[in-house]
Design brief:
Blueprint lengths: L2 E2 L10 H24 L1 H8 L5 H17 L1 H15 L1 H21 L3 H4 L2 H31 L5 H29 L2 H6 L4 H17 L8 E2 L6 H8 L1 H33 L3 H29 L1 H22 L5 H28 L6 H17 L2 H12 L4 H19 L10
Antiparallel strand pairs: 1-2
Helix pairs in contact: 1-5, 1-7, 1-8, 1-10, 2-3, 3-7, 3-16, 3-17, 4-5, 4-7, 4-16, 5-7, 5-10, 7-8, 7-16, 8-13, 8-15, 11-16, 12-13, 12-15, 12-16, 12-17, 12-18, 13-14, 13-15, 14-15, 14-18
């Protein structure tokens, strides 16, 4: 046959095993990205020495963005693997690549030690990490949804978002702990490397728990066509919907849970340790909201949850961002919690929606490529864009206006979606 709905030779995996295998990989993948974002000012001084701290920071965020630019290439590669050989192959290979590149980054000599080779190697390692993430998150979402029973697809897929947030939360917590325990001199000299080395052990756990995963899902065999070419030709409308659907949540996430620590430190004058503590508290709330929103989407539908999230961000992004610009911790936390609620609702309902609105054939390629191209252009560049906009305009509210524009696009897409929560099969 040209393509099979399920590989009949494999027993269906236990849903609890699938959830854990998918979640731990996401924890590892996003832990690393969080740590880099949180320690961007330190990394900038280590690898891009410059008398102007803004220049060093922009260079560090530029390398952060380069990892996202590699994600579409990873998405095409791992999407091909997922559609041809099964989603389980993607989950195993992507996390190995991420673990190796993360460990090497933690051991990389600074500019003072090896000169220009340091920023070049840093960029290459970030590209390798971005390449691996191009298949990890979307691959795990598709794997979970395709193995979930009808009526529980939202809740099951929500654990991928939970894993991603948990990874960022772990990175934030580790960053706060290191910043609080180590003096500034030690932090800049070697302390920032510790989280990256810790990431290697998390990758090892992910490899261990994923070792028994089989393909077990829709694959395309023997058609003679590249999944990428076929997906672009037949699923370009679905790709555009996916891009619009994820804009608000992902730009909002990278702005409010990655860039915000630098913003609070550089623009508001909040000590880095305190900024990380506030971010960690808000992320704890976000981590709880994501699976709750996913569960709720199984009960009331995907569309109501997504409408509340996108319209809420459209109306509240500016006042919430205004609140975090005050140096009072309660106001900052209040603004962060408001964003946590809105972004958490979207993160809970988005993953299952992406799978449900995409036809089975070439699903892995369609979702992975659309998702990662969008993040390459709008997600990973968010810290860089926000820092640049403030530097150019002198207006600290301008990142909120950028987020409002993204929310307007997402709202328009959400309003055109059909409700998919109560369909028996996908």
């Amino acid at each position: 046959m040209e393509w099979d709905e399920r590989l009949m030779t494999e027993k269906p995996p236990k849903i609890s095993k699938s959830i854990f295998a998918g979640t731990i990989g996401n924890i590892m993948e996003w832990f690393d990205f969080a740590v880099y974002g949180f320690f961007a000012p330190v990394i900038g001084r280590q690898f891009f020495p410059n008398e102007d701290p803004v220049t060093s920071l922009l260079a560090a965020f530029g390398v952060f963005a380069s990892g996202f630019l590699a994600r579409p290439l990873g998405a095409a590669f791992f999407g091909h693997l997922g559609d041809r050989y099964g989603r389980g192959v993607v989950l195993k290979s992507s996390v190995i690549l991420m673990g190796v590149s993360t460990g090497l980054l933690g051991l990389l000599p600074s500019y003072a030690a090896i000169g220009l080779a340091a920023p070049v190697l840093l960029t290459l390692l970030r590209i390798a990490q971005g390449f691996s993430v191009g298949g990890e998150y979307t691959g795990s979402v598709i794997y979970l949804v395709e193995h979930a029973p009808a009526g529980r697809r939202g809740l099951v897929s929500g654990w991928s978002g939970f894993g991603a947030v948990a990874g960022f939360l772990l990175g934030s917590a580790v960053g706060a702990l290191i910043s609080a325990v180590l003096p500034d001199e030690a932090l800049h000299a070697w302390g920032w490397r510790l989280p990256f080395l810790l990431g290697v052990s998390i990758a090892g756990l992910a490899v261990f728990f994923r070792r028994g995963l089989g393909p077990g899902e829709t694959v395309d065999r023997g058609s003679g066509r590249l999944p990428l070419a076929a997906a672009v030709r037949t699923q370009w409308r679905a790709m555009l919907r996916i891009a619009g659907l994820i804009l608000m949540a992902n730009v909002g996430f990278y702005m409010m849970f990655v860039y915000v620590t630098t913003f609070l430190s550089e623009q508001v004058g909040v000590p880095m340790a305190e900024a990380l503590e506030i971010d960690t508290a808000a992320m704890c709330v976000l981590m709880v909201i994501v699976p709750l929103a996913a569960w709720l989407s199984d009960r009331v539908g995907r569309k109501p949850i997504l409408v509340i999230a996108s319209v809420g961000c459209l109306l509240l992004a500016v006042p919430l961002f205004f609140a975090i610009q005050h140096d009072h911790p309660a106001l900052i936390l209040g603004g962060q919690l408001g964003f946590a609620l809105l972004i958490g609702l979207a993160f809970g309902a988005n993953p299952v929606t992406l799978v449900e609105i995409t036809p089975p054939r070439y699903r892995c390629t369609t979702i992975s490529v659309a998702y990662n191209i969008t993040l390459a252009i709008f997600g990973g560049t968010t810290p860089l864009v926000a820092a640049w906009l403030i530097h150019q305009t002198g207006e600290t509210l301008v990142p909120a206006y950028y987020l409002v524009a993204m929310a307007a696009v997402t709202t328009g897409v959400v309003l055109t979606l059909r409700e998919t929560a109560f369909e028996k099969s996908i």
